[in-house]
Amino acid sequence: MARVVVATAFGGPEVLSVVEEEIPAPGPGEVRISVRAAGINPVDWKLYSGSMGTAAALPMRLGFEAAGVVVGVGAEAIGPAGSVSVGDQVIAFRIAGGYAEEIVVPASTVVPKPATMGWEPAGGLMLAGATAVHALTATGVSSGETVLVHGAAGGVGLMVVQAAVARGARVIGTASISNHPYLRELGTEPTTYGDGLADRVRALAPDGVDAAIDCVGTNEAVDVSLELVADRDRIVSIAAFPYGSEVGIKMIGGGPGADPGTDVRNAARLQLTELVAQGQLEVRARSFALDDVAAAHREGQAGHVSGKLVLVPHASA
Ligand SMILES: NC(=O)c1ccc[n+]([C@@H]2O[C@H](COP(=O)([O-])OP(=O)(O)OC[C@H]3O[C@@H](n4cnc5c(N)ncnc54)[C@H](OP(=O)(O)O)[C@@H]3O)[C@@H](O)[C@H]2O)c1
């Protein structure tokens, strides 16, 4: 038996509980992982809030990513980086039900955790990181170009700015003033969002902005991007549903009409661990115990998390 988080109804974080569930032995092509950290993402609460529909079966397991130690393998447990063995320290993405002490997942979702990376950052690396790689691929950001990133200090935003800097791009990022020092440390030029944003960006980049990545979904982020970037194919949003589609910018991810980018995101897993191993990508993570999942979600829903929130199911992790 293992402790797992479930949503028992559609609603707010009060519908979350921790229950005991039987975890099956891994079958062919599967691995069993003792979870050390599970990443929290806004989609997790969107799923049980009912805002994405109420057709999903209840109780609903949550969590699309987790990092941990392999404690069992089925036959032919082969992941993107090769065979998976008991004792391996790994990250699993994209999975279902990561909020748990133990999980059984397809070996195809499992990549080695970089040795230098702690469990908590590893638990929050993949969903935001793969989204960031997809956003940079969709906008074709390359060395020497200037990219505007809206919501630069959020979970996805921080991955976008670091991956863009690693590509040699100049990055201007919007964030609350308290996040500006950290963005500067990462090589990003920060500015505040809100009235006058387009003028502030023009002052920073008088020669123009080549591409824009919206990690927030506000009309302001879309409108300022349209004002500053001539080519709509070089503006991408991960959250401006449905406005972004209406104005003809690129929408990516799981929303209606968006490009899921499954191949790009799957390939991104090993690119992300490589960036981490090379010291070009770090994850700022803050952890909560499994029993505090509702508090973690309330904090995430307030919309000003800098970096990632993760759940740590074992007290010693
Ligand atoms: N399409 C996809 O594949 C995909 C993937 C992941 C996430 N998403 C979606 O993308 C959104 C962001 O996800 P996340 O995980 O990065 O969230 P997050 O970690 O909660 O970050 C949200 C960020 O938004 C910023 N923010 C809040 N209000 C703002 C405003 N009015 N203008 C500009 N920025 C503002 C905050 O910045 P400050 O704290 O600096 O104010 C915060 O850093 C969510 O809606 C999520 O569901 C989509």
Write the layout of secondary structure elements.
Elements: E1 2-7, E2 16-21, E3 30-39, H1 42-49, E4 60-61, E5 66-73, E6 78-79, E7 82-83, E8 89-92, E9 102-106, E10 110-112, H2 119-123, H3 126-139, E11 146-150, H4 155-166, E12 170-174, H5 180-185, E13 188-191, H6 197-204, E14 211-214, H7 219-228, E15 235-237, H8 243-247, E16 250-251, H9 262-277, E17 285-289, H10 293-301, E18 308-312
Parallel strand pairs: 11-12, 11-14, 12-13, 14-15, 15-16, 17-18
Antiparallel strand pairs: 1-2, 1-4, 3-5, 3-9, 3-18, 5-8, 6-7, 8-10
Brief summary:
The chain has 317 residues and is of the alpha/beta class.
Describe this entry's structure for a reader.
It is a single chain. Helices cover 29% and strands 26% of the residues. It is an alpha/beta fold and 317 residues long. The strands form four sheets. Strands 3, 5, 8, 9, 10, 17 and 18 form a seven-stranded mixed sheet that branches. It has a six-stranded parallel sheet with strand order 13-12-11-14-15-16, sandwiched between helices. A three-stranded antiparallel sheet has the order 2-1-4, with no helix packed on it. α10 (293-301) links the parallel β17 (285-289) and β18 (308-312). The two termini are 19 Å apart. The mean pLDDT is 97. It binds NADP nicotinamide-adenine-dinucleotide phosphate. NADP nicotinamide-adenine-dinucleotide phosphate binds next to α1, α3 and α4.
Terminal CA distance reads 19 Å
Strand content: 25-35%
**Cα gyration radius (Å):** 19 Å
Structural class: alpha/beta
Mass-distribution shape? globular
The overall strand count is 18
Give the biggest sheet. 7 strands, mixed
Strand-and-helix sequence, N→C?
Answer: EEEHEEEEEEEHHEHEHEHEHEHEHEHE
